[in-house]
């Protein structure tokens, strides 16, 4: 009787073990088969249009004043976008009735603007960028030295009270026109010397004035005399910078005829 029970139990156990082994083998075979199935390679979406996010915050960059600033370098795409043609088109802004425009580049435009503000007959001054090939440049852009812009002052004056020659006299007195692409510690193409004329009469007067000035100083003048190009008004903090106090908050006089020394950085 006991032997019969033992045989029965052994048979049942053997059957159970056999069943589990069979089930395990089937699962293993099924898993191995899954691994051998041909599967589609993983693919990831690609985007051929990349967006560059600039982390540079435009600010007053003193390295830029030395010609060592870093800008957005957007000028790299200027030619393909047609920006060059726009930037180098004539200045189509219109002065007030009875007034005329003139543009001058003579180094950092802060001190130059204040000098022109003091001339009787000058009714308005603005600082900005011109003669480059990038449309709508920023201060940081022109400080890279890659856009060919010049820091200029656009002067509006009443020809009945102020002659173009008067403006030229101030222009020559405010900088060294024999230095190429620099004025003092300010180095870079944006600081070059230039007279940008709006009429044949201004061009003729400018060239005659430069010839006289060369004889006076006895050196070759590198000032460029070119037609006035599109004027891009500089950022607001640059406008009348020294009159508003400059770097140290000391306002400088804009009174007509004032002869106070001009502190170029305030």
Descriptive tags:
alpha+beta; 8 strands; two-stranded antiparallel ribbon; six-stranded mixed beta sheet; disordered N terminus; single chain; 266 residues; Peptide Methionine Sulfoxide Reductase, Chain A
Describe the overall structure.
This protein is of the alpha+beta class. Helix content is 34%, strand content 15%. It has a domain at 85-244: Peptide methionine sulphoxide reductase MsrA (Peptide Methionine Sulfoxide Reductase, Chain A). The N and C termini lie far apart (118 Å). The relative contact order is 0.15. GO terms for molecular function: peptide-methionine (S)-S-oxide reductase activity. Keywords: Oxidoreductase. InterPro entries: Met_Sox_Rdtase_MsrA_dom, Met_Sox_Rdtase_MsrA_sf, MsrA_MetSO_reductase.
Roughly how much helix do the residues carry, as a percent range?
25-40%
CATH level-two architecture of the domain at 85-244: 2-Layer Sandwich
SSE series: HHHHEHEHEHEEEHEE
Enumerate the spans where pLDDT stays under 50 for 5 or more consecutive residues.
Answer: 1-80
* Coarse shape: globular
Number of helices: 8
* Total beta strands: 8
User: Kindly state the mean pLDDT as a whole number?
Assistant: 80
End-to-end CA span: 118 Å
> By helix and strand content, what is the structural category?
alpha+beta
The neighbouring-strand order within the major sheet is: 7-6-1-3-2-8
Question: What integer value in Å does the Rg equal?
Answer: 37 Å
Tell me the major beta sheet: 6 strands, mixed
Give the CATH level 1 class of the domain at 85-244.
Alpha Beta
CATH superfamily of the domain at 85-244: Peptide methionine sulphoxide reductase MsrA
What is the multimeric organization of the chains shown?
A: single chain
CATH fold-level name of the domain at 85-244: Peptide Methionine Sulfoxide Reductase, Chain A
Q: Report the portion of residues in β strands.
A: 5-15%
Domain Peptide methionine sulphoxide reductase MsrA: 102-244
Protein name: peptide-methionine (S)-S-oxide reductase
Keywords: Oxidoreductase
Pfam families: PMSR
């Amino acid at each position: 009787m006991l032997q019969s029970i033992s045989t029965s139990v052994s048979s049942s156990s053997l059957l159970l073990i056999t069943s589990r082994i069979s089930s395990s083998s089937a699962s293993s075979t099924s898993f191995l088969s899954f691994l051998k199935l041909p599967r589609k390679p993983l693919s990831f979406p690609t985007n051929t249009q990349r967006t560059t996010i600039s982390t540079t915050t435009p600010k007053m960059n003193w390295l830029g004043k030395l010609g060592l600033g870093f800008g957005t370098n957007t000028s790299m795409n200027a030619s393909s976008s047609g920006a060059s043609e726009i930037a180098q088109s004539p200045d189509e802004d219109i002065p007030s009735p009875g007034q005329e425009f003139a543009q001058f580049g003579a180094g950092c435009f802060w001190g130059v603007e204040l000098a022109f503000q003091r001339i009787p007959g000058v009714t308005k001054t603005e600082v900005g960028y011109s003669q480059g090939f990038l449309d709508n440049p920023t201060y940081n852009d022109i400080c890279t030295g890659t856009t060919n812009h010049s820091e200029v002052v656009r002067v509006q004056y009443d020809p009945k009270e102020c002659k173009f020659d008067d403006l030229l006299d101030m222009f020559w007195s405010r900088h060294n026109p024999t230095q190429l692409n620099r004025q003092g510690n300010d180095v870079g193409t944006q600081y070059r010397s230039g007279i940008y004329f709006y009429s044949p009469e201004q061009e003729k007067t400018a060239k005659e004035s430069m010839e006289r000035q060369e004889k006076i100083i006895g050196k070759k003048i590198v000032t460029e005399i070119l037609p006035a190009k599109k004027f891009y008004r500089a950022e607001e903090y640059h406008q009348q910078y020294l009159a508003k106090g400059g770097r140290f908050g000391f306002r400088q006089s804009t009174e007509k005829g004032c002869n106070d020394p001009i502190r170029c950085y305030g």
